[in-house]
TrEMBL record:
GO terms for molecular function: GTP binding; GTPase activity. GO terms for biological process: small GTPase-mediated signal transduction. Keywords: GTP-binding, Nucleotide-binding. This is Rho related BTB domain containing 2. SMART domains: RAB, RHO. It comes from Junco hyemalis. Transmembrane segments: none annotated. InterPro entries: P-loop_NTPase (IPR027417), Small_GTP-bd (IPR005225), Small_GTPase (IPR001806), Small_GTPase_Rho (IPR003578).
Amino acid sequence: MDSDMDYERPNVETIKCVVVGDNAVGKTRLICARACNATLTQYQLLATHVPTVWAIDQYRVCQEVLERSRDVVDDVSVSLRLWDTFGDHHKDRRFAYGRSDVVVLCFSIANPNSLHHVKTMWYPEIKHFCPRAPVILVGCQLDLRYADLEAVNRARRPLARECWIKRSDILGKNL
């Protein structure tokens, strides 16, 4: 079945979820873990940074990805479309934000600067381009952390009052 069919079927609600954050915080790995059920070995995870490789075309060309995007929430059939972004490509992000239903804002628990950028850059940018979209704050790289989680909690309260998630590929937590 072609993924474009989800857009045409009235009984399937397509949810556009844009994933943003600094470079190398784990955005693409988060998406691949959800969309492809992809897990990597500890060696693969630690060996190198995986630059953005996820494309919206995956829903069109890969039946498994399309099937994993579908679910039923509150008796409504939905298809979750994850949009990966480059951390430093401002023009591309503006395009990605268009008609977003939800934004996942990622930071690295192992990098205090990425949490600082959540407050000073990412959250204001999201609210500028997607003022009504809910924001889910995701702390990635839990396995590499040295962050004070209470400091993370204090920083996230004004941004993500209802939800923030800590995740780790290595520990297999919250994938």
